[in-house]
């Protein structure tokens, strides 16, 4: 690019696209650098907005963030649709969390007791009662939990909406890979075709964020790739009405029904490095467990299998905020909550760029927390 912009966003997944959207809505000139905007983990995801059923022991700070993000989602996608004219597929379907056998139910009961102690609204039901809520479940399920307040969004429709909105806002989509960061404050984003100069740079490249050559050593926060497979099927009639999140002999699986008839089944979590090849075994395991819980999927049409790399961190929380290098910010590490946290991250980073503080719920998730951990004596 010949002309400098106010903000260069390196990475065009949902976090980078929302950051660009929010900054452009505030009047900034923005460029997004990514060879395939909206692909990768953002394309593979299922779009669950599930702060309650994603909660794990010890993730109380992350829970506060995801609850705030879920509450803000309807207004965010309404603003997006107002610019793009396209629906992102937001639906308040609720979730049912299903235990296949007695062992799964015992683990779910213990986790749900912790969630209710935190004030979360759930209902623990027997298998029969759960099937009355969601008749598409198998007759043999042991029981489960209803989280009526959860929702979903069609992540691919949202990406399409974001790309149209960015075009209408004048955001430049630079469909190249960043080859490195050049010296300066803020740094220059290097491309094979030449540099991108900006008043501020936001690193939002997911699992690849810290692989960028020229990144200062202290910013190589521990973001790692965690591969996830998802399957897409299609049915003529709905097989379930809720998002179904199951445990089958300790292994998680989910089934996400779309209004269009698409059904997303997922997802594996595999620590294989930067590997994106799709595995037959992953497809087998996901289909096996999904069919045990939702037998109506047996007649579904096969559509595709996809695999992406989630950006994981040691505490499963995102990495968002200033880096200590003037004009350089980071927004990565969203792991299994990327779609849920993308609008909240985008608004927060756009606020930082305008001189505002991080929202309170994001304050615990700056990059400095990992440096502080490394300084604590063993």
Written overview of the protein:
With 378 residues, the protein is α/β, with parallel strands linked by helices. It has two domains: 5-48 and 156-222 and 315-375, FAD/NAD(P)-binding domain; 95-148 and 224-312, 2-Layer Sandwich (D-Amino Acid Oxidase, Chain A, domain 2), CATH 3.30.9. Helix content is 31%, strand content 25%. It has helices spanning 14-25, 41-44, 60-84, 102-117, 127-133, 155-168, 280-293, 338-353, 368-375; strands at residues 5-10, 30-33, 48-49, 95-99, 123-126, 143-147, 151-152, 172-174, 180-182, 188-190, 198-203, 224-234, 243-248, 251-257, 262-266, 301-312, 319-322, 328-332. The termini are far apart. Mean pLDDT is 95; it is low at 372-378.
Sum this structure up briefly.
With 378 residues, the protein is an alpha/beta fold. 31% of the residues lie in helices and 25% in strands.
**Main beta sheet, described?**
8 strands, mixed
- The end-to-end span amounts to 48 Å
Strand content of the residues, in percent? 15-25%
Q: What's the CATH class of the largest domain, please?
A: Alpha Beta
The total count of helices amounts to 9
Principal-axes geometry comes out as globular
Order of helices and strands: EHEHEHEHEHEEHEEEEEEEEHEEEHH
Helical/strand content category: alpha/beta
Tell me which CATH architecture of the largest domain applies here. Answer: 3-Layer(bba) Sandwich
Number of domains: 2
CATH superfamily of the largest domain: FAD/NAD(P)-binding domain
Q: Walk across the major sheet and give the strand order.
A: 5-6-4-13-14-15-12-16
| Helix proportion range | 25-40%
State mean pLDDT (0 to 100 scale): 95
Unreliable spans? 372-378
Question: Would you report the number of β strands?
Answer: 18
Quaternary structure annotation: single chain
CATH T-level topology of the largest domain: FAD/NAD(P)-binding domain
- Radius of gyration (Å): 21 Å
Protein name: glycine oxidase
GO molecular function: flavin adenine dinucleotide binding; glycine oxidase activity
Pathway: Cofactor biosynthesis; thiamine diphosphate biosynthesis
Catalytic activity: glycine + O2 + H2O = glyoxylate + H2O2 + NH4(+)
